[in-house]
Amino acid sequence: MRLRNVIKTYPAARGRSEVCAVDDVDLDIAAGDVQAIVGYSGAGKSTLVRLLNGLEPATSGSIQIGGTELVGLRERQLRRLRLDIGMIFQQFNLFESRTVWGNLAYPLDIAGVGKAEQQRRISELLHFVGLPDKAHTYPRNLSGGQKQRVGIARALTTNPSLLLADEATSALDPETTHEVLRLLKRVNAEFGTTIVAITHEMEVVRELADHVAVMENGRVVETGRVYDVFSAPQQPVTRRFVGTVVDDEPSTEALAALRTRHPGRFVKLELREGGPRQTDVFAVLHERGVAFELVFGGIEEIQGATFGNLTLALDGPTASVDEAVRELAALVPAKEL
Amino acid sequence: MLTALPTDTRVGELWPDIWQATGETLLMVALTMLIGGILGLLLALGLYLTRRGGLYENRVVSAVLNLLVNFFRPIPFIIFIAAVQPAARLVVGTGIGFPAVVFSLILASMFGIARIVEQNLVTVPPGVIEAARAMGASRARIAATVVLPEAMAPIILGYTFAFVAVVDMSAVAGLIAGGGLGSFAQTFGYRQYDPTVTWVCVLILVALVQVIQLLGNTLSARILRR
């Protein structure tokens, strides 16, 4: 999937000026990838994801999915395209007037799939999402997690190559969120479905995504592999997001509190997979006779790779500490707090 | 105490006429609910689908439909029935009697039902419609297979409400000799100082409304319980 210079503006409404919800976005998503898009509400991520299946038409730019250009397509052509794009929602959006079975049959009816094939497909998917006994239940009798699992099954009935997830876990408790994310990972792994997930929860990005794009004011301000973005966030908004799940450095208040409890100079060190190890750092301090204490931060693991942001309090003769700080800075990215 | 009951009532000899009037009312109301109900539903869909953000958003059509509904709906039926008499002559060939009453009832109820059902349709969460669009459903398919079924429980209550309102309106039929329980109660009860006849008609109407309301509530609750 290739997005180039994608712009979506809403015309000026009474008393309001024109709104640019998506502002000149470039984004590439490889087939089979799980791409997360994060941002605060109003950042434009919801609009962006609706451009991908043409629920909202882009104002200008180019959106190519598997070689098909979406921008400028007619509604009729978009409808055919949508059969190959599943979508799940924060509020699940199940049809309350239909049973679970009826919900799953709906997209198959649109696709013109015969009854026998429908039967096979629906029962297969209900088993996949672990709800084979709920076929004849109405959605109102399901829990939130079960509803989202039905939503996922419904989105997969036509065997789409792309699945759009619009805050799919934001209405769920942490444990159910975990369950749904595991299910989405299985969808990606077993069916090879490309997933584009928008969220404001970094926990979701960490657990689910391969790549992440950070949006702010309609623009994509940072993109990259999840590990890279988590371990080295570049933009202030990215740092704020990463900071919600990863301890970077203590806030001003936390720092002041730490200083009352710990003497010495505070240095934040960044340890990255493949770089110098903790033993190298501690060897330097040991050599200089500097006492140290870990006062903030820790080791994170993302997709099998680890990184750490460690804030140490260094204590010892001034000259030794100076020397140690200089040597540490040469070894790893270091910052005196 | 028993002497307080009117003894000079003709209700005994009038029973056959009362049942005939009841039949007229039932037929009047049934025809109105059937034809007016369908026309009202279509008008409601028009209002709902063309409104801002609707599946067939169209400012001009929406404004025209709204003007039409807002123009006819507030007219009291007793005036409405007289005002549309020329139209009745044109369509059903007569300005008086049963056909003219049914014609007026259909026309008047259609606008009321349109507004009620429109409000029922608005209760369908936009997200559900968006989900159907995301699946590749056409707009017409969404209107028929998502919007209507999802709003069915409130729509049934809406029609129940309309039914009771039509029973009320049908009592005015006597104005143009349309028959029914309402005019029977006026002619043989009120004008002939026979409150027993009036009250018999009232009780039949109340019973009718009770039965309809019960049916509507039960049906709606059964759908909601899903």
| SSE pattern of chain A | EEEHEEHEHHHEHEHEEHHHEHEEHE
Shape of chain A: elongated
Q: What can be said about the biggest beta sheet of chain A? A: 6 strands, mixed
Regions with little confidence, pLDDT below 50 for 5+ residues of chain A: none
- The residue-averaged pLDDT of chain B reads 91
**Through-space gap between termini of chain B:** 53 Å
Largest sheet of chain B: none
Any idea what the radius of gyration of chain B is?
21 Å
Low-confidence stretches of chain B: none
| CA-based shape of chain B | elongated
CATH homologous superfamily grouping of the largest domain in chain A = P-loop containing nucleotide triphosphate hydrolases
Major β-sheet strand ordering of chain A? 6-7-8-3-9-10
Please work out how many helical segments of chain A DSSP would assign. Answer: 12
Order of helices and strands of chain B: HHHHHHHHHH
Structural class of chain B: mainly alpha
What does this structure look like?
- Chain B: It comes from Nocardioides luteus.
- Chain B: Its main location: membrane.
- The complex is a heterodimer of chains A (337) and B (226).
- Chain A has 2 domains: 242 residues, P-loop containing nucleotide triphosphate hydrolases (Rossmann fold), CATH 3.40.50; 85 residues, 2-Layer Sandwich (Alpha-Beta Plaits).
- Helix content of chain A is 38%, strand content 28%.
- Chain A starts with a strand and ends with a strand.
- Chain B is mainly α and 226 residues long.
- Helix content of chain B is 77%, strand content 0%.
- The radius of gyration of chain B is 21 Å and the shape is elongated.
- The model of chain B has no long low-confidence stretch (mean pLDDT 91).
- The interface between A and B is medium-sized, with 27 and 20 residues.
